[in-house]
Amino acid sequence: MLIVQTKIAEWDKVIDHQVEDFELQLGEKVVVKNEFGSDMATVVGLQKVTTEELSNKGEIESSSSVRKANTNDLEIFLGLNKDKDSVLAYCKKIVVRHDLPMKVIDAHFSLDKSRLIFPFVTDGRVDFRILVKDLTNHYKQSVRLQQIGVRDEAKISGDLGSCGKTLCCQTSLKKLGGVTSDMTDRQQVSHRGSDRLSGQCGRLKCCMRYEDENYEELSKIFPAIGSAVKTQKGSGKVIGWHTLKQTVDIELEGQGRNRLEVSVKEIS
């Protein structure tokens, strides 16, 4: 069984489609159908799964909901996108007029010309009903505003990371986020401060996830900070770890602030 994964835009969620005999390639344009109408989408994943794996995937669209885009579809899509800049500018103007605390970052046209989608970011809740009303009256079609995260905004806008390379969210990462302060603690970089640990989106860098599994595995044999241990030079307590070196800092008892670094294998 083949699962085709599609997205209508970089900021939208991935939709799984179950197909049985359908030749598609990554990056290929397809037309997808849902309860709202037809959309142009891009193939972002192809998976072969067993019947058991399929049952664990949750909601999946049928093969009839996706087909290859033909020349006519592509011409319609390109024609619609010629107006994107002006549509986005008009939406932003209305946002300013109503003094709404939100940032609209894109405009998406459905292939059947039945609706417009405006993704936006905001720090809190915002009542945008008057914005939807104005846009609906102006464009004479259904309008939907979709809140997205700041990581999605960075993926769309693009930039270079502190490493000098294009942001990972634009090139390789399919799943964004999931980065926690626990990861910075495990990798012993939390002392560097938020400025150095934050990406262009203002959140913890996604690359903190890359090696976290290794750090978590390596740290399993370490005693807890503050725990009492015995070394060849006497008893003491653990005051620090060096995960990659597989050593710990020990403060020996009754010897002032005498500290030593020993291998985790040499303590008990």
Describe the structure.
This protein is of the alpha+beta class. The chain folds into four domains: 68 residues, no CATH class; 67 residues, GMP Synthetase, Chain A, domain 3 (2-Layer Sandwich), CATH 3.30.300; 65 residues, no CATH class; 45 residues. The chain is 26% helix and 27% strand. The chain has a five-stranded antiparallel β-sheet with strand order 2-1-4-3-5. It is elongated, with a radius of gyration of 26 Å.
What are the defining features of this structure?
268 residues; alpha+beta; GMP Synthetase, Chain A, domain 3; 4 domains; five-stranded antiparallel beta sheet; four-stranded mixed beta sheet; 13 strands; elongated
Biggest β-sheet: count, sense, barrel? 5 strands, antiparallel
Q: What structural class do you assign from the helix and strand content?
A: alpha+beta
Number of strands: 13
The number of helical segments is 9
Strand-residue proportion: 25-35%
Q: N-to-C SSE series?
A: EEEEHEHHEEEHEHHHHHEEEE
Proportion of residues in helical segments: 25-40%
Strand order of the largest sheet: 2-1-4-3-5
The number of domains: 4
